[in-house]
Amino acid sequence: MKSFLAGCGAVVVLVGVVLGVLLVLLVLAFHRGASEQEAFYRAVDSGNVDEVMALLDAELQQQIDAPVLAAWVKAMQARLGKCKGLRATDFNTSTQIRDGVKITESSGTVRFEQGDAQSALVLRDGKIIQFNVQSDKLADWFTELSDTALYEKQAEDCLTKIMTGKIDEARAMMHEELQKVLTAEQLQAFLDSALPESGAMKGLTLQSKEFRAGNPPELELKYQIECEKKPMQAKIGFQFVDLKGHLVSVSISPPES
User: Fold this and answer.
1) String of b and e for 196-221 (b: at least 16 CB within 10 Å)?
2) Stretch 120-125: mean pLDDT, rounded?
3) In this predicted model, what pLDDT tens digit does every residue of 101-116 receive, in sequence order?
4) Nearest to 158 by CA among 145, 146, 175, 143
């Protein structure tokens, strides 16, 4: 009996040590995940889009437009307020090594001044490759786009390439679905018929812009194409999916007779 009791005692001590180690690992994992979440929301609270972008992996940065991210940050601040911390009882984090790359995932409830949100981050070697913030207060958050300079530049670049015969370069700027319906042959045929009457392009004038909230949100830019002989009218349309705008429509009217 003594040896049995001693054996049981040894097992109890061993289990206690194992549980202690697991507890330490869980605490360390929580703090690691919490620190990454807190760093993300500090950047969001700052309102500085560059700070948020700096936390993102280069590949994710390519999938996000700074003006749309700025609109999302503004909505976060207006609807949820500043981050007040994580709810420790509802937070999970894990780290794995995949092909020599460290992948860290954390998710749980984040408390804000005006309510809670569910937050999930995935990081690859310390850089965010995915983030997801869910709250009823963020429903239909994309209601305005105050900075359209990025899309004006894209629209003007596309129109300039079309009007100067750089058809392939212009189509490369378009969403793949638009490329399917607007062929290089169609664009070239338009130029062949319109340029003799309009003359070469001399410049572009933005006449109006309209952002429409919806599903998906849209931006329409209207231009006058200044030409040597007669002007033409053009419209460029963008649709927004997640945090990026896509060039989805191009319309150029031939010169008026």
Assistant:
1) eebeebeebeeeebebeeeeebbbbb
2) 95
3) 999 999 999 999 999 9
4) 175
